[in-house]
Amino acid sequence: MNTDAKSIIENGKAILGIEFGSTRIKAVLIDPENRPIAQGSHTWENQLVDGLWTYSIEAIWYGLQDCYADLRRNVKEQYDIEIETLAAIGVSAMMHGYMAFNKQQEILVPFRTWRNTNTAKAAAELSDLFVFNIPLRWSISHLYQAILDNEEHVKDIDYLTTLAGYIHWLITGERVLGIGDASGMLPIDPQTKNYSAAMIEKFDNLVADRGYQWKLADILPRVLPAGKNAGFLTPEGAKRLDVSGHLKAGIPVCPPEGDAGTGMVATNAVKPRTGNVSAGTSSFSMIVLEKDLSRPYEVIDIVTTPDGNPVAMVHCNNCTSDLNAWVNLFKEYQELMGMPVDMNQVYEKLYNHALKGAADCGGLLSYNYFSGEPVTGMAEGRPMFVRSANDKFTLANFMRANLYAAVGVLKIGNDILFNDEHIKVDKITGHGGLFKTKGVGQRILAAALNSPISVMETAGEGGPWGMAILGSYLVNNTANLSLPEFLDEKVFAGNQGTEIAPTPEDVAGFNAYIKKYNRCLPIEEAAVKYN
Prior knowledge:
CATH 3.30.420.40
């Protein structure tokens, strides 16, 4: 037993980070040195209800309570004690989406998650109005689409927030949001570190003839940067979190954040000229900018770090799903041959063998589109492998083509940043399932982005750990450090991770692959049309 950790929990010095992901709710308890000492989780799934992706209010609270109960069990097993109080709490969740409430705090329509794509008309009109790329999944797109669709509930809105903002509100009573998550509701003005006043005015003018009793600024959460107090756990909030009744009220709670912000914190990528790539079922890159882009781009979202710096985000709907499907095919073959299967070994062998393939994959192409891919203009997806009779169809080239496909769309978006906007980056950190096999995903991504890629051991701790660190920043930042300084000095303390730089041959090969990939996109379009 770790007696230090036991006394830290007993003395109320531990910090709790909770993150609502798409498939899991996870809780991490850390010590004052920001090391994980206990964890809990709950598995959940979204539902498609009346054509929209949602999670019910009941599922949200049951999931939170079950996750916390699992954390309590973990603490009891390891240290034989109960959690009575904490130094701080932080809640994060998948960003964007739409949760609208009336004056009685009743939700007006089921929670609309980031996955919904029914907001195309609203997003396009707002992008034109604001001269700023407004993605389909942002809260303002959902709100305006509801207005365009003449939805009855809009007139009754008293509060509009995200999932993290909703949880925070009900456990603290505070209608606030961390600036990173807020930047996925409505664009942030980098000067004021608040919602853009000009855009709020434009929106209010746009909907003035509708006669609503509310103005946009009145229904949005107050914006707070990392390190600011965002309220305290109320007695009711303590009961909502811990149904056993052990947890006491009065604990400081830091500003709630989005999962992109916690990913930046967990990879120490919050200062300008740093970035991170998350590569799992979907993928996204976050590059912290030194200056504004010259113009809006439909495939690049501008959000912020948890301390308010602008970030260029390229979000791709597809990443490892198709790759995993092919690997499972090889697993089936092994089973058919009566060979024992160790999936870690299967991945390791196939991924490493891919590095022996030609740098341009011998002409082979893969489209990993399980779902639509906005970056390449695909409303729907069809996973597809393409080759001609003259291409070099070997296992190494085949696996390499599938690995390239996993980050190909990410490359297309980032090529705009690096080649057209000449953005400079000193360090990009990778995290997620693609990097589990040591060195391979890293090398592929380095070739795609023509940039050195680092992977840290701690990146596997993920979003809830990043959220707990933001809680730590609230209560343990006695030296009044900036968030980048706090991460450098107190959390990562010289841990830069393992870096792999791109080779000229790999970069040239990936460029040749992506040129052919772009040229052959009409094949994917035809597959969607006819299959």
